[in-house]
Every structure is written in structure tokens, then in C-alpha cells.
Specification:
- The complex is a heterodimer.
- By secondary structure, chain A is α+β, with helices and mostly antiparallel strands.
- Chain A is globular, with a radius of gyration of 25 Å.
- The N and C termini of chain B lie close together (8 Å).
- By secondary structure, chain B is mainly α.
- Helices cover 77% and strands 0% of the residues of chain B.
- Classes of the chains: A alpha+beta, B mainly alpha.
- At the A-B interface, helix 3, helix 6, strand 12, helix 10 and helix 16 of A face helix 2, helix 3, helix 5, helix 7 and helix 12 of B.
Chain lengths: 556, 337
């Protein structure tokens, strides 16, 4: 849905600005300077250039200088609000759709968006959602309770993308429209962090969706590359695998009241090679990029034009040890390996871009992370003692499986290999493509002895990490590759899901974290510091939750 | 046999070749371990979500049924869907193939335009300074890794000199020309969009030069070697004895006969460049089929992999036919036989 003509839109904007004298000379020069940076025409300029434009594309860029060009290695492969879900997709979805609640800031906080109020019953089974009465879609129609109900139901019917967060606790009958701006959700099971997952229900305009229904697909084919939302941005250009351009929707109903001047546009460019992204940042072709190598990160960090994110993420990395089969089923073997692993070497391996984990939760997950856990640290004497107490005192052979081509995971494996050798444990390094690893993790019998796994962040609650990785119901998922089974632990998580009192939940999760550390379920290695880099004029756009929110990003 | 009959026969032979490609790629994709459905279902998918994806993509069917469905789909223009992006493979190929084709085409034009003249000069001035220089250039062309050269070019011509952009087919704010062929240089020309034409030439310059170097070096050395051999033959000596101009002897008599191995090499280089474009595409962020293939292979996304194999099989076969036809044009004895 484009609100501007594609051809020469920027030129037309500029002509219009001059015609109506809505742009003065000073503004023009500021805009022109920023445009030079945005379009990469300033080449090596360290600051926005005020030089006159030399090429036609420079003229085109001036009217839309307030544009962010983001370089990412990841494609926006499916914009459908209910079937697509990954880091890059959510950047797009958060731009063009509104959700019931939204995450903002770092540390992230839940903020209202379509929902002005979300109230859970004390037993966490009934949730009342009050909607803003002025919310609209891009066609001007109101966002009603019926529209939200349709979106819940479509998401559950599709059963893809984010449905895993909802499908285990609700079905299509769970959503009741109380009045045009009120919805009641009657969950099948208690789920205390329900409000925390609401930012992932993106609300599409049912009329537009149904208009593009083909053979009962509920618009699925169309919504991959088009939008039917009411978000702060809309799509202007969609070049598959190359460039996705979003432009600000001029009549957006919501004011985030964060004092940020909104961007006029955002361009998502697919650039997979870190060195290319780095050079593109330096030439001004990009203003924001992600997934740089440590070397490129260090090089850009040395340049005052750029800001390198140094905030620890909520993304833990662990070496999952098979708790059910093989030598690692022995708790003393797991303790020996946890003691043998050199955590400081692991941080060095990622050029310092990480912090050692203090248990199963990222330390940045406040207030949920429990401080002072008796985590097992690198100590070869303790490792030898633990191994001696195991049934494998003479050593053994084990597999370490990691993603092909992922250098850090290979380095962590080499660290484990070197230290385990001192215990007479032979580690066989086995690189695999990710689908193979997922398949291997599907049962305790086939799961590797040790498997390298990064876990992402979807919702800001310990349930996100602990349930998916350690609750026995999750056996078969890659995140639960350790195949940990402990009824007492399961009960703690289930009780925490059934209680909306945060203090009670904190106690339960504290106990759960302690249990995991005592059982040495896996080698808790580190949480990464994501390599996101942006130009200094953008302030601090880092978002610890998956994707980014353009409502919170603007040039200073 | 007339040329037309010959071409028709070769085109008909394409059918079993491509059938073999489908059988082979299908078998390989089902033999390799791993489960793309689990990956597509997402990190936390429930078993129901996983089963739903297997049903949706027919992965729950017996293998012969799956192959039959694939084959019958091909005849109806349905090359399957990517299990990850859920986009039709044909649509993806339509998007990514022109970018690779344009890159390889421009690279080969550069390789031929520079390689053949330099090869001629090297042959005519064999073992003299010009030949030595061309030998060094060829050595550099074949021995320097493409990714290294690519980064070097980016730093030198992109960052330091600012002559060329370092990534993509067009600048971020520039819009692609309306699609006719999918080749931006051609489409912008056809539409009379001169600034876009200039822009797309600037964008393709560095990746095309990088990709052209190994082919250029090979073509240069082949031209030199074959031309040297031909220049030593009796009929060339005769032509010279009859007082023919040296230019006429080389370009009119010798080069045409020397071109047959070179044309073979050009055809092979075209194929190698298609395969080798993946590194160049990666470094220059060129949205071609090489990147698409790599991404699909790493995620075991079978349908795109099979589609790419089929497309490449087709293109290779066509190139071979064109090379064979060119033989006949260069040497009438070939077409007569």
C-alpha cells in the first residue's frame, strides 16, 4: 500500500516544498547535508556534507533526508503478521503493524499501544484488554475488538510464526468480544506472562486481508510482501532479497510521547558480508548495521562517527549437554565439563563482545536473574575431582556439534576440546547445518553429547528461556537439547505460570535457576554483546527485544 | 544435417538431461540427513505445527508420490515453494537469476574484450616484454582469490577513491527500472532512463571486473597458445609468402582457426563464472542466484536447491549448444561433418 507515487516521489516532494515555500534555505542546507550522508554521496566525509548535489539521485535524496538505511545480512522473507517471525521480519512487522502492547527502551518495558490496559485475573487465566478508541488502520477504519479477535483467531489458525507463544494456552474460542473496545481472553491454562507476549500479536485490517484471500489462504500469499496494518510506517518498495523501503504513514494515530522526531523512511538493505557493511558505513551508504565481525566492530568503534552497542543482550549461549544419554547423563561428568571449560577464553574468542553467564538466565534480564548462584567456574582441580567421582573416571569420547561456518561456536568447541583433553576426554568436533542439528536434538537417543546453542529473546520474562529450554514438555525442541527432566523443576515453572504476583514468581524462578545450576544441566557460557553499530546522530536505537521499533528511532 | 536440424536435435536431447537432473537432485535432497520442516516450523513450534508444515509441503507422502508431484508441478510451471520463505521458487528464480546473468554476462564481455586482444598481442610478440606482462597479468588473474580482490577493490575504488559504490545493484534511494529483461543495464536503456543506466553501470563495475579476471586470464592464455600454434602452420607461412599484410594474416587467416579452443574455453568460463559468482555476490552484496543457492543449501531448503540445479543444468546445456553452433560458424568442416 503506497501513499506516494513510486516514480520521482522524492523530486516531487522537493518541488512541492519549494513551491509552497515550506522549506527555507537553512533547512534546505541541513536537509541536503543529511541527504549526502544518507545517500552515500559524501564518500569519506566524516560529517554531513553541505556540498551541492552532483547526481540526480542526490537530488532525489534531499527531500527524504530523514531516512535511515539499515544494512543487515538477513532478509525480510515474510511480512505476514501471523506467519513470519524472526529478527529481520519483526523489524518490518513492528514498522507497519500495531500490536496490543509494545516494548520500548533498554531495559525494555511494556508500553501501551492498541491496548490501553491489560488486566489479568489473580490466577492468570482471564485477561481483559481495553483498546484505544482512536486507533485506526491505514485505510482510516477503526481498530475494533472484532478486528483484534479476528487477528488472534487467524494467528491460531495459521499456527505458525509466533503461534507457539499462544497456542498452548488458548484456542479460537478463548477470545470474547465484550464491547467494541474490550476483549476478554479466557485461557485454557494459567499463563502469568501473557501480557509479555502481547507485543507479538500484530493486528491487520480484516477487510484488507479478506480482500486478498486466494483459495481460502486468508491473504497469506499477499501479506508476505504487502501490509494491511495501521502502524507508523507503510511499504514504499519491496525488492525481494535486496531492498525494502518503508515510509512514514503521515496520519498515524499514535504518539509515543518519547520526544523523538520520527524518521521519514527506513530502507532495509541486505548486505551479508561484514566487511562490505563496514565499508558501506564508512562511505555513508548505511547508517545502521548489524552482525559485524569483531575486527570490523573494533575498526568502526575507533571512528567517532559511529556508536557501537556495548549493552549485553538477552541472548544466552550455552553448550547443551545431553542429560539423558551417554556420559553426560552423569551429573559428575557434566560438572567436570563445566569446571573444565575456560570461560575467560570464550570471551576472548569473541573479542570481548560478551559477558560470562551467571546461571541459566542472562544477567541483563532484570530483576529475574538470580545473583550469587553457585555457578561452576573454570577450575581444573575441581574438574578432575568431579570426573573421578563419576562413572567415567578414565575418560571417554564425546561429540561437540556446532553450526557449520559459525566461527565462535567452533572456537568454543576448541576451548572445550583443549581443556577436556587434560581430563582424558576426547572431544570430536562435528560441524553440521542447523536443520541437521535440530533433527539430532529431537530425541534424547540422537541428541549429541554437547551441542552449541544460542537462544533468542521473544518476551521479557524468565518463562521465555526456562520453559522452552528445560521444561520436560519441550523435549524434542532444539532449545531443550539437554533433555532435562525434573518433575520438581517442572512444578516450579508451572506454579510460576499460574501466579500473577511478581514477587511470588521471582521466588519460584530463583529456586528454578538454583536447581539448574546444581544439576549442571549445561555449560552456561556467555551472553553476547550484539554487534550493532549506528551513526552517532541516531542516539541509542538498540532494542534488546527481537527486531527494532521505528517509533523509538530518530536523528538527533 | 542442416544447422536447424542439428540445433533441434540438441534441444530435444535436453529433455532426458533435465529429467536426469530432477531425478538426481530429488534423490540427493531426500538422502541427506536433516529436516527442513523442523527448521521452518520455528524454534518453539509445537508437534502439531511441525506436522502441519510436513502436510502442507507434501513431505508426509511416500517418496515416489513426492517425485511425481514435483515432476507434474514442473510441467505446470510450479517449481515448488521454499519451505522457509514460503515463496514460489519460480518467483525467486525470476528475481535472482537476472542479477546473476547480468553480472556474469558483463564479466564475460570484459573478459573476452580484454582477454582476446591481449592474447593476440602476447602471441604476436611472444617472449617479448608485452608477452611477459600479459603472463604476469594472467597469473594474477587466476591466482588471486576473488573475495580478496573484491575487498581490495572495495577499499581502493569505493572507500579511498570514492569512484564506485561498494554494494548492491543500485543505490539505496534509487529505484529499479521497470522490468523488461530483469537486467538493470538493459532495462534502463530500453526505458530511456539514462541516469539509472549510468548508476547501474557504476554498481556493476567492481563485481564484474572482479569476476572477469580468472576468465580473462584463461581466455588470454588460450588465445596466445592456440594462435602461436596456428601461426606456425604452413598456410600462414604461405599467406605471408604471398605478401599478405601481417594484420590480415593474423586476424583474417590465423585467428579464426585459433578461436575454436578459445570459444570452448569461453563457454566453460561462462559456466564456471556462474558457479563462482557466489563469492563475488557475497562480498558485493549482489542479489543473485549464488547467494540464494548458498542460503538455501545451508538451511536444506530443498525446493530452491532443486530449482537452481535445474536452471543451471538448462543454462549449461544451452551454452554447450551455442558453443557447438559457433564451431560450425568458425570452421565449415565442423558443420559439414
Amino acid at each position: 500500500m503506497a501513499f506516494y507515487s513510486k516514480s520521482e516521489r522524492h523530486v516531487a516532494d522537493l518541488h512541492e516544498a519549494f513551491r509552497t515555500e515550506s522549506i527555507d534555505r537553512r533547512t534546505f542546507l541541513k536537509v541536503a547535508g543529511a541527504a549526502a550522508v544518507a545517500s552515500g554521496l559524501s564518500q569519506n566525509a566524516a560529517v554531513p556534507s553541505l556540498a551541492a548535489p552532483r547526481r540526480r539521485s542526490a537530488i532525489r535524496a534531499q527531500a527524504n533526508a530523514n531516512v535511515l538505511v539499515y544494512g543487515s545480512g538477513q532478509d525480510i522473507s515474510n511480512l505476514d503478521p501471523h506467519t513470519g517471525h524472526d529478527y529481520s521480519i519483526t523489524w518490518g512487522q513492528r514498522a507497519v503493524y500495531d500490536s496490543l502492547l509494545r516494548y520500548e527502551g533498554n531495559p525494555a518495558e511494556l508500553k501501551p499501544l492498541l491496548a490501553t490496559e491489560v488486566i489479568g485475573s489473580p490466577d492468570a487465566t482471564t485477561w481483559t484488554i481495553k483498546l484505544a478508541d482512536n486507533a485506526t488502520f491505514h485505510d482510516g477504519s477503526a481498530v475494533t475488538a472484532e478486528a483484534v479477535q479476528y487477528n488472534f483467531q487467524r494467528m491460531l489458525r495459521k499456527n505458525l510464526g509466533v503461534a507457539w507463544m499462544f497456542a498452548t494456552v488458548m484456542n479460537e474460542e478463548s477470545i470474547v468480544v465484550a464491547d467494541p473496545t474490550t476483549i476478554e481472553i479466557n485461557l485454557l491454562k494459567p499463563f502469568a506472562p501473557y501480557d509479555a507476549v502481547l507485543p507479538w500479536l500484530f493486528v491487520a485490517n480484516p477487510a484488507i486481508v479478506q480482500e486478498h484471500d486466494v483459495d481460502g489462504d486468508e491473504g497469506e500469499a499477499w501479506l508476505k510482501e504487502n501490509e494491511a496494518g495501521g502502524g507508523s510506517f507503510t511499504i514504499n518498495r519491496w525488492e525481494v532479497g535486496t531492498t525494502y523501503e518503508f515510509v512514514r504513514y503521515p496520519d498515524y494515530w499514535f504518539d509515543p510521547e518519547n520526544g523523538i522526531t520520527p524518521l521519514d523512511g527506513m530502507i532495509w538493505r541486505i548486505i551479508r558480508e561484514s566487511s562490505t557493511k563496514r565499508i558501506a558505513m564508512e562511505t555513508g551508504e548505511l547508517q545502521f548495521g548489524d552482525r559485524f565481525t569483531p575486527e570490523d566492530t573494533a575498526a568502526l568503534a575507533a571512528n567517532a562517527r559511529f556508536v557501537v552497542n556495548n549493552e549485553p543482550s538477552l541472548t544466552p549461549f550455552a553448550i547443551k549437554l545431553n542429560n539423558q544419554a551417554g556420559p553426560t547423563a552423569d551429573i559428575n561428568v557434566r560438572k567436570a565439563l563445566s569446571h573444565a571449560f575456560d570461560y575467560d577464553a570464550a570471551i576472548e574468542a569473541v573479542s570481548g563482545r560478551g559477558v560470562v553467564m551467571e546461571g541459566p538466565l542472562a544477567t541483563a534480564l532484570k530483576p529475574w536473574h538470580k545473583a550469587g548462584l553457585p555457578v561452576l567456574r573454570h577450575d581444573m582441580e575441581a574438574a578432575k575431582a568431579a570426573l573421578a567421582a563419576s562413572g567415567f573416571a578414565d575418560g571417554f569420547e564425546m561429540e561437540y556439534v556446532y553450526v557449520t561456518g559459525l566461527t565462535e561456536e567452533e572456537l568454543f568447541g576448541l576451548i572445550l576440546l583443549e581443556k577436556a583433553a587434560e581430563l582424558n576426554i576426547t572431544v570430536n568436533m562435528l560441524p553440521m547445518v542447523w536443520p541437521d542439528m535440530v533433527a539430532r536434538a529431537s530425541s534424547a537417543e540422537t541428541a549429541p553429547n554437547a551441542m552449541a546453542v544460542y537462544s533468542g529473546t521473544d518476551y521479557l520474562d524468565p518463562d521465555n528461556f526456562l520453559w522452552q529450554a528445560y521444561h520436560s514438555s519441550q523435549a524434542g525442541f532444539w532449545a531443550a537439547a539437554s533433555h532435562y527432566t525434573n518433575p520438581a523443576f517442572d512444578k516450579l515453572l508451572e506454579d510460576a505460570r499460574a501466579d500473577t504476583n511478581q514477587e511470588n514468581r521471582k521466588k519460584l524462578y530463583d529456586e528454578a535457576q538454583l536447581m539448574l545450576v546444581n544439576d549442571a544441566v549445561e555449560i552456561f557460557v556467555y551472553t553476547e554483546i550484539e554487534s550493532e553499530i549506528w551513526v552517532a546522530e541516531l542516539g541509542n536505537p538498540y532494542d534488546p527485544i527481537m527486531g527494532g521499533d521505528l517509533r523509538s528511532i530518530g536523528y538527533q | 544435417m542442416s544447422l536447424l536440424n542439428y540445433v533441434l536435435r540438441r534441444v530435444l536431447l535436453l529433455i532426458p538431461t533435465l529429467f536426469g537432473v530432477t531425478l538426481l537432485t530429488f534423490a540427493l535432497s531426500r538422502i541427506v540427513p536433516g529436516d527442513p520442516a523442523r527448521l521452518a516450523a520455528g524454534a518453539q513450534a509445537t508437534p502439531e505445527m511441525y506436522d502441519q508444515i510436513r502436510r502442507e509441503f507434501g513431505l508426509d507422502q511416500p517418496l515416489p508420490v513426492q517425485y511425481w508431484n514435483y515432476l507434474s508441478g514442473l510441467f505446470q510451471g510450479d517449481w515448488g515453494r521454499s519451505i522457509l520463505s514460503r515463496r514460489p521458487v519460480v518467483d525467486d528464480l525470476r528475481v535472482f537469476w537476472p542479477a546473476t546473468f547480468e553480472l556474469v554476462l558483463v564479466a564475460m564481455l570484459i573478459a573476452v574484450a580484454i582477454g582476446i586482444p591481449l592474447g593476440i598481442v602476447a602471441a604476436v610478440r611472444a617472449d617479448r616484454p608485452a608477452d611477459q606482462v600479459s603472463r604476469v597479468v594472467a597469473l594474477i588473474g587466476v591466482s588471486l582469490p576473488a573475495f580478496w580482490l573484491a575487498i581490495l577493490f572495495q577499499i581502493l575504488f569505493g572507500l579511498k577513491l570514492g569512484w564506485f559504490p561498494v554494494s548492491g545493484r543500485l543505490a539505496a534511494l534509487a529505484e529499479a527500472p521497470e522490468t523488461v529483461t530483469g537486467l538493470y543495464t538493459i532495462d534502463s536503456l530500453l526505458r530511456g532512463q539514462w541516469s539509472t543506466f549510468g548508476e547501474s553501470l557504476r554498481q556493476i563495475a567492481l563485481p564484474a571486473v572482479t569476476l572477469s579476471l580468472p576468465a580473462m586470464a584463461t581466455i588470454m592464455r588460450f588465445t596466445r597458445a592456440t594462435l602461436l600454434e596456428v601461426l606456425g602452420q604452413d598456410y600462414v607461412r604461405t599467406a605471408r609468402a604471398k605478401g599478405a599484410e601481417e594484420r590480415s594474416v593474423i586476424l583474417g587467416h590465423a585467428l579464426r582457426n585459433a578461436m575454436i579452443p578459445t570459444v570452448t574455453m569461453i563457454g566453460l568460463s561462462f559456466g564456471w563464472s556462474m558457479g563462482g559468482s557466489v563469492l563475488v555476490e557475497t562480498v558485493f552484496d549482489w542479489p543473485g542466484i549464488g547467494l540464494y543457492a548458498t542460503k538455501s543449501a545451508l538451511t536444506l531448503d530443498f525446493m530452491p536447491i532443486m530449482g537452481i540445479a535445474l536452471l543451471y543444468g538448462f543454462v549449461f546445456s544451452i551454452i554447450n549448444i551455442l558453443v557447438d553452433v559457433t564451431y560450425g560458424m568458425l570452421d565449415p568442416r565442423v558443420s559439414r561433418s
